Amino acid sequence: MSTLPNSLKNISLFLERLPGIGEKTANRLTFFLLNLSEEDLKEFAENVATLKSKTKLCENCFNFTEKEICEICDNDERDHSIICVVETVLDLLSFEQGKIYNGVYHVLHGKIDPLNRVGPDDIKIGELIKRIKNQITDDGLRIKEIILATNPDMEGEATAVYIKNKLKTITDNELRITRLAYGLPMGANLEYADYMTLKKAIEGRNKF
What we know:
By secondary structure, this protein is α/β, with parallel strands linked by helices. The chain has eight helices and nine strands.
């Protein structure tokens, strides 16, 4: 690192701060960027520079978007009567990559984790409850099913139970609440699951 000029050293040190990137990988990525054409490097720099300002949360489901409503919520071909509740956008992407689900989503942006001082009010549970309440009409509930697709670990399970209890108080048991089947091993993360595992899990979901 000491033999690199500051222009390269600063980039490499920054890349080392990224998840899973060590010193050698950071150096290789730095040299890769250096060897890009001026045009490609400027395009990359502009995309990074505007990442925060252009990226918003969908007003409906809290997926990432550049508009007020994300492409999934804005798609009339999706089944809007089924909502899959996930912890992160990465979990949402895992379902979307396999094209195994045609409903819509609600992204919590976390899970209940008392040891790290994350409570129900720190994630998008209140917004989910409000979203369901807004679907209650004189003719009944427009939502048919909520799939609780939080990760099958202790915190994810606690989050699912909390949401289930909250939903039951506002829907009088009219709402079908399901949990992903345990085709996923306990302690696993949806982000790293292959799409066939997710397909089996969502097909074999049970009443929760």
